[in-house]
Amino acid sequence: MSELLIRCDCGWNEHIALLTYWDAPEMYLQFYLVAGRWWQRLWVAVRYVLGYKSQFGAWDEIVLGREAVREMASFLDDFLADTPEE
Ligand SMILES: [Zn+2]
Predict the structure, then answer these.
(1) Which of 12, 40, 49, 75 could crosslink 4 through cysteines, CB 3.0-4.6 Å?
(2) Angle at 60 between CA 36 and CA 51, to 5 degrees
(3) What is the pLDDT of residue 50?
(4) In angstroms, how far apart are the furthest CA atoms of the chain?
């Protein structure tokens, strides 16, 4: 298994993404979802129960600095070299 932990350029420890691959032609991209305070989670739950949907969808993001992009590019190159074609 190979994995790369990517930290957001803002420096907040909860803004992270994880790239993982095994010996297969797929890669997994996981984002840590910030839970927020209890009243924020309650607000999200109430809106969900009432069927609210944002016109923009549900997104989260991290900001990548140049070093993180370099590490990610190298990791993606390794993935393409190490795993079989479908
Ligand atoms: Zn951030």
Answers:
(1) 75
(2) 75
(3) 94
(4) 48
Residue type, 8: C
pLDDT digits (tens, 9 = 90+) for 38-58: 999 899 899 989 998 888 777
Tell me how far the alpha carbon of residue 61 lies from the centroid of ligand 1, in angstroms.
7
Q: Which of 9, 7, 33, 4 has the alpha carbon at shortest distance from 20?
A: 4
Q: Which amino acid is at 54?
A: S
Handedness of CA 59, 80, 70, 18 (dihedral sign): positive
HSE-up (13 A, CA, CB side) for residue 18? 11
Distance 5 CA to ligand 1 centre (A): 14
14-27 pLDDT tens trace: 889 999 998 888 99
The model's pTM: 0.71
57 CA distance to ligand 1 centroid (A)? 19
